[in-house]
Amino acid sequence: MDMGLKNKTALVTGSTKGIGKAIAIELAKEGVHVLINGRNYEEVERILNEIKSDFPATSPQNATADLVDIEQREALFEKFPSIDILVNNMGIYEIMQYENIDDNTWEKYFRTNVLTANGLSKYYLPHMLKNKYGRMIFIASEEAVMPSGLMPQYGMTKSMLLSLSKSLSKLTIGTEVTINTIMPGPTLSENVYQIIESMYSDEDMTFAEKEKRFMTTNLPQSEIQRFIKPSEIGRLATFVCSPYASAFKGSPIRMDGGMVPTIF
Ligand SMILES: NC(=O)c1ccc[n+]([C@@H]2O[C@H](COP(=O)([O-])OP(=O)(O)OC[C@H]3O[C@@H](n4cnc5c(N)ncnc54)[C@H](OP(=O)(O)O)[C@@H]3O)[C@@H](O)[C@H]2O)c1
User: Are residues 40 and 153 in the same domain?
Assistant: First the structure.
């Protein structure tokens, strides 16, 4: 199915790895010119060359920037003043004990996971409204609606994204601009893969066996009993970016493998 996205331009934040990279690839598959972002210029260049060679009809570009840094963010706006699609994917996460989370850490998570996405949205939204078309997606997490208690400093930021997304969506009434949130459950990014490998490094098991053991022991509530593939999130995000998804407005969209036990 042609998603109707050919020749659109998309900035996917944090797209050299994991979910962001998968979203960039799925968008490029649909003929979108993706702006690849991460903090390391060579790494960004490597990923965009991969995408260029796989999808030669598209023109991926280098959008290296530490997005938490306001000056670097502004330099990025100068380089790419207008885009059709913004995927606020970049985010940090770590298991932390509540007693050990100091104010600096709370602030760091708020600044990185919320204020950075807000800064990008604040800049690009007026352009999208002026162009009468746009797609904005925030990548939250199932932690936004079902905090596990294992990373309170992270869960807080992901809940905030749901509220921010809905507030911004209110500014798009009557337009072809949509703003939504996707909530992935546990997803097999490179980081997660390494964590699982190292947890069972002494055991003579295939990765699939390690994954199964991890799921049974640590995530029994997952209904798929495997990690979500980043490409699955990528395909969902691509659909949400497409003209076929224009009735999604301020929606929190779950793809969590059944982790959240409630209907809503
Ligand atoms: N993986 C999961 O199970 C899971 C589940 C639910 C939600 N999520 C959410 O999905 C998003 C992506 O997660 P992931 O696991 O795919 O992440 P990841 O593998 O850790 O990748 C993070 C990406 O962000 C870039 N990055 C980090 N800090 C940056 C900064 N300050 N400025 C620009 N780029 C930066 C990284 O590149 P450099 O380090 O080179 O800059 C990399 O490209 C996050 O928001 C996360 O909370 C993940």
Answer: yes
